[in-house]
TrEMBL record:
Domain (Formamidopyrimidine-DNA glycosylase catalytic): residue spans on this chain: 2-112
Reactions it catalyzes: 2'-deoxyribonucleotide-(2'-deoxyribose 5'-phosphate)-2'-deoxyribonucleotide-DNA = a 3'-end 2'-deoxyribonucleotide-(2,3-dehydro-2,3-deoxyribose 5'-phosphate)-DNA + a 5'-end 5'-phospho-2'-deoxyribonucleoside-DNA + H(+); Hydrolysis of DNA containing ring-opened 7-methylguanine residues, releasing 2,6-diamino-4-hydroxy-5-(N-methyl)formamidopyrimidine
SUPFAM superfamilies for this protein: Glucocorticoid receptor-like (DNA-binding domain) (SSF57716), N-terminal domain of MutM-like DNA repair proteins (SSF81624), S13-like H2TH domain (SSF46946)
GO MF annotation terms: 8-oxo-7,8-dihydroguanine DNA N-glycosylase activity; class I DNA-(apurinic or apyrimidinic site) endonuclease activity; damaged DNA binding; double-stranded DNA binding; zinc ion binding
Domain FPG-type residue range list: 235-269
Similarity-based family: Belongs to the FPG family.
Keywords associated with the record: DNA damage, DNA repair, DNA-binding, Glycosidase, Hydrolase, Lyase, Metal-binding, Multifunctional enzyme, Zinc, Zinc-finger
Protein name: Formamidopyrimidine-DNA glycosylase
Enzyme Commission number: 3.2.2.23, 4.2.99.18
Gene Ontology biological process: base-excision repair
Record bears the keyword Hydrolase: yes
Amino acid sequence: MPELPEMENYKELLQQKIVGNTISGVMINRDKSINLSSDEFVKNVQTQKIKTIERRAKYLLFHLNNNSVLLLHLMLGGWMFYGTEEDKPDRTVQVQLSFGKQHLYFIGLRLGYLHLLSQEEVKGELADLGPNPLDVNFSLDTFLNLIRNRRGMIKTTLVNQEFLAGIGNRYSDEIAWHAQLLPERNMNELNDKENVQLYQSIKFILKQAIQYGGYMDEPLYKGDTKTGGYLDRTYVYDRKGEACKRCGAPIIKDKISSRKTFYCDECQK
């Protein structure tokens, strides 16, 4: 499932492509991917201009000039492609937004969705999300207050969207590795130094993943050389049996709370 870095990468690239452009056409191939009837959805989206694109946790928010919002959650298997009909991947498209001869294709939305909501409805939809770990106001003191008396394992805490918004399975493992902490360690067992390191590792890993375009397999557009650049840079995730990049010990694959988990039991303590 795309996490914070993937959605931030999509946001940054799409801002260059479609912000300020008018939606000239809308095609709905799967009614379950939207929240209105196809006719109503098209009526309220077509001819609207994309004012800005915002990311919140694992969501993208496309703000339209009629003050409504297209709220996107890709969920498991969802991705996007922007380009002409000739460039479109040979995949099933659930929703398509057109901008003249260029189109934004929403692909793999079997669980994901693109909902048209009011500003107030969006606030309600996202009300339970925790703070953005990359917000300028998310300081060390904020983090320490957040984890005070916090119980539960590092792994399950990091993927809890009500605790922090945007971290999922992949980056929770990357963060724990970078912090040199075993993912099954309990939060209330960490000492002051470990808490500081965990905070720093959250910031470092998420920023690094954004810098290299996240892990998505498919490019966003023809000639896109950024998207997916983090795939070859992961430290532990999906690297079972490979040598740890820090100590050389083999990476272990395990399950924690039914989630596949990767770590090094030599240098993570």
